[in-house]
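Onboarding guide, step 5: your first structure request.
Type a short instruction followed by the sequence, for example:

Predict the 3D structure of this protein.
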Amino acid sequence: MRAILFDDGRGELSPLTDLRASFEVRCGAFSALERLGRDGDVEVAGLWVPERLAALTRERHALPVNAGADGPVLLINGRWALADGSSAANLDEGEAWVDASGEVIAAHVAASDAARVATHDLSGLSAIRRPEPGFALLRRPWDARAVRDRALAMDLARFDPAAGAAAPRGVVVIGGKVQGKGLFIHPGARVYPGAVIDHEGGAVVIDEGAVVRPGAILIGPCSVGPHSTVLERATIRPWTAIGPWCKVNGEVGGAVFQGYANKAHDGYLGDSWVGEWVNLGAGTTNSNLLNTYGEVVAKARPDGPNERTGEQFLGAIIGDHVKTAICTRLYTGCVLGTGSMFACTAPVSGCVPAFSWVTDAGRRVYRFDKFMEVARAAMARRGVTPGAAYEARLRTLTTE
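The system replies with structure tokens like these:
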């Protein structure tokens, strides 16, 4: 069935969606777009995004962007982080899944109705169904933490341990072959002697081109994405999902890396979301639990109210291109805006605006020309050149 993923622009999801559509946000091993692209029940035929993201999305994807629908189509909300094509494909034409707030999760509609339904106009639908709570839509940045375990479990189940390579001699493997668990090592991955892989409590996936260095410890469930490197003595604890082209060291637990990030040194990172092109300096450490063991309260925007997150364990939400100096401390539930730089002895807390330059002298605005100079240098280290639409979107963020 042909599907269109749509980003309705709703919710307060910055910095997760500053430089990507909602369906590109990684909450497990895959984003919603990546997961549906692997699903044989649907064919992603197009992407609908807010105008502010249209040029950037076209630059990034070959799929039609904001083009009209052609024939009956399955609309899938990009904020459905647990998007499952096989479930959505069971909708009859004229049917929709709608959450308690009246927002469309998925709908099977005629081409003439698609644009209207994507705005959550439910008139003309023959049936409206209320799915289970697991179909919840992302509304705040910390919702990525709320869906992490279910998203990662869904994604790890897509890898067949029998299709992978055997662990090389000298690698310590703990855990038997249990349904829903296991070890998948892509034939193109490299795992060095002295590494320890424990999949007794959940699956471990080491994807194509990934490298696990000697002395690294991986404890499932967890995944190491394509071309990422887990460095010597790293401890990757359960519910960690490392996207592509990352370097990771230290103690990491329950963190999701969007991709292209560096945490190459010691320091603890727990229950956090890390954007692309982030560099965490040596010793950078975050708190993911209050001393009171209470529910974490956070802000979705710098001038916004404190909100209950529903989470006892919540670390940092780190926007794209954030840089931290050595020994930076990140408080529980902090949100770091895109393009910010931190070189301060005081702990970082609250919701920090995008393009902040934070030192012991206070906070000022990061000069955009200097920011782009650093961004181009960082991206060049991975062989990436920022496109015109990408740079334009970054510049627009400085005024939003």
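Each response can be followed by summary notes, for example: The chain has two domains: 2-139, 156-397.
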